[in-house]
């Protein structure tokens, strides 16, 4: 995953279409310092869950990652800012609950954890499995997407981000 994140950083900075800090431009890196195991464990304890392996891997590479394309993809949050969607944007869940045909999505939103896009127009969500040892779900979620925009995992998501950058 680190190679993909590095390639995203280098490609976005080279294209020069977005604003980056001087440090990001000099280091050719859109991430932060890695999270510590203690920070990850504290967040897991605070939320009462154990994160999926690929999210922990991301955090050990970078504790937060700036989006290279603000209108298309959310930035990833520092582990200290990660929270349940119900605690961040309860109104969004309420809106989806009002429509019976969208109830399945609303139920997943109510369980989801926001790991990206906290102050942006779209979120990146982790949805814990209901059954132990089942797979986590990974969604990019915005009001203009009719429901979820699912991914098979974080590396799959970042590969899509890189492909989008290269096609721009």
TrEMBL record:
This chain belongs to the protein called SMI1/KNR4 family protein
Q: What InterPro entries does the record tag this protein with?
A: Knr4/Smi1-like_dom, Knr4/Smi1-like_sf
- Source taxon at top rank: Bacteria
What Gene3D superfamilies would the database entry show?
A: SMI1/KNR4-like
Residues in Knr4/Smi1-like domain copies: 34-167
């Amino acid at each position: 995953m680190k190679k993909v994140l590095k390639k995203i950083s280098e490609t976005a900075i080279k294209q020069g279409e977005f604003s980056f800090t001087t440090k990001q431009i000099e280091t050719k890196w859109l991430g932060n310092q890695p999270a510590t195991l203690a920070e990850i464990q504290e967040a897991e304890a605070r939320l009462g869950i154990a994160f999926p392996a690929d999210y922990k891997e991301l955090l050990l590479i970078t504790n937060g990652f700036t989006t290279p394309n603000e209108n298309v993809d959310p930035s990833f949050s520092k582990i200290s800012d990660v929270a349940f969607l119900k605690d961040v944007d309860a109104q969004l869940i309420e809106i989806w609950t009002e429509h019976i045909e969208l109830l399945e999505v609303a139920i997943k939103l109510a369980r989801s954890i926001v790991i990206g896009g906290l102050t942006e127009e779209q979120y990146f969500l982790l949805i814990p499995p209901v059954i132990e040892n089942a797979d986590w779900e990974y969604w990019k979620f915005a009001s203009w997407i009719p429901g979820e925009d699912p991914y098979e995992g974080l590396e799959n998501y970042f590969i899509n981000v890189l492909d989008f950058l290269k096609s721009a």
